[in-house]
Every structure is written in structure tokens, then in C-alpha cells.
Write a structure and sequence with these properties.
By secondary structure, the chain is an alpha/beta fold. It has one domain: MTH938-like (Hypothetical Protein Mth938, Chain: A, 3-Layer(aba) Sandwich). 19% of the residues lie in helices and 35% in strands.
Length: 113
Amino acid sequence: MHIDSYDFGRIVIDGRTYSQDLLIFSGQIKSDWWRGEAHLLQIPDVFEALAADIQLLVVGSGQPGRMQVDPSLAAHLREKSIDLVVKPTREACVVINQMPPTRRWAAALHLTC
């Protein structure tokens, strides 16, 4: 999976354009994904990804980085020995593109603010 480009409200992955927030896990892209609270990422929001036995969760927190990770989600990830990377979405895309092919990861990408 390769992120071709990202701009505010728009991301292109393997040639396909998306204009809504995405949850990516196990090579799947969930394009109808949304969170319970607009700018707060919580455990239920990424439940499917966590069930996929990941080693890393990459959070794209939006172009200016407004989306926050709930402290209870961060604590849950630590308990499960799952690494967490939170960056503005443009930087998160770089992390994803540099991911070693053997790493089991998921991404929660907020495309706007």
C-alpha cells in the first residue's frame, strides 16, 4: 500500500482518491470510518484495527493536528505493547510509506482539521 499524495480533505492511495477520514488495517481501507467524537480518537473508534493483531497504530491527526488521542486509548495501546505514532496527517503518510513490509500496522487518518 502506498500513499501517493495528501492534501487537506483528500488522499490518494494506490491511485484511488478518498475524501473522507480513513481507517486502514490488514491491507484494507475503511473509507466510511468516523469517530464517536469529531476530534478525539477513542478505543471504540479503532476497535477493528486493534483486533487485527497490530504492532503499531499510526494516527494522522489532521493537517494542523487538531485530532487528539484519548489518554485511555494510549494507555490501552501501552498495555497491549502496541506502539503509537501521532503526527499531522502529512507526516503520518510519510511514516506509512516508509513502513517495513513485515510490520503489522494500522492507521487512523483524519484528512481535514
